[in-house]
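Q: I have 168 residues here and want to know how they pack in 3D. Can you give me a structure?
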Amino acid sequence: MANEDVNHEHGNPSVEFEREDLSPKAIFGFMIGLAVTGVVIYFIITGMYTYLDKYEREQASTSSPLVTSKAVMDRHIPYGPGEDYVHQRFSENGAPMLEIDERTQFHDYLMKQEQELNSYGWVDEKSGVAHIPIERAMQLIVQRGLPVKPEGGAEQKAGAAKPAPAKQ
């Protein structure tokens, strides 16, 4: 037991501490190095993206071979006297029609569909095909029932070929 007391520098082993901890100077040095590395990486990435954006703008070609110049295809649609003006302007340049006011156009489309569902009119007047209001069509189906194709069909019997005569 006497040898154990001699090997310790302090008389009380419960007050010992580890002598190989990091010093505060090393911790602050690491944090400063980490911050400097982060700033350097930020500038490298920003420079790289700036270069790539510039390169892409220089190398970009037009999106369509039909486009002749950028002055012709500006994205500003002038509000002229009406849709005829816009249609005339864009049909001359070969560009597709663009929507000017999609809410109004969609509303007009829905009203046209609603009008067609609730009115009488011709689909093809020459062949005698007409459309009727949907409510009236449902009443007619309730009254008359759905059209049924005959089973075995009278059409099949009328169009059936006669058996070939027996050879002698």
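Q: Anything worth noting?
A: The two ends are 134 Å apart (CA to CA). The mean pLDDT is 75.
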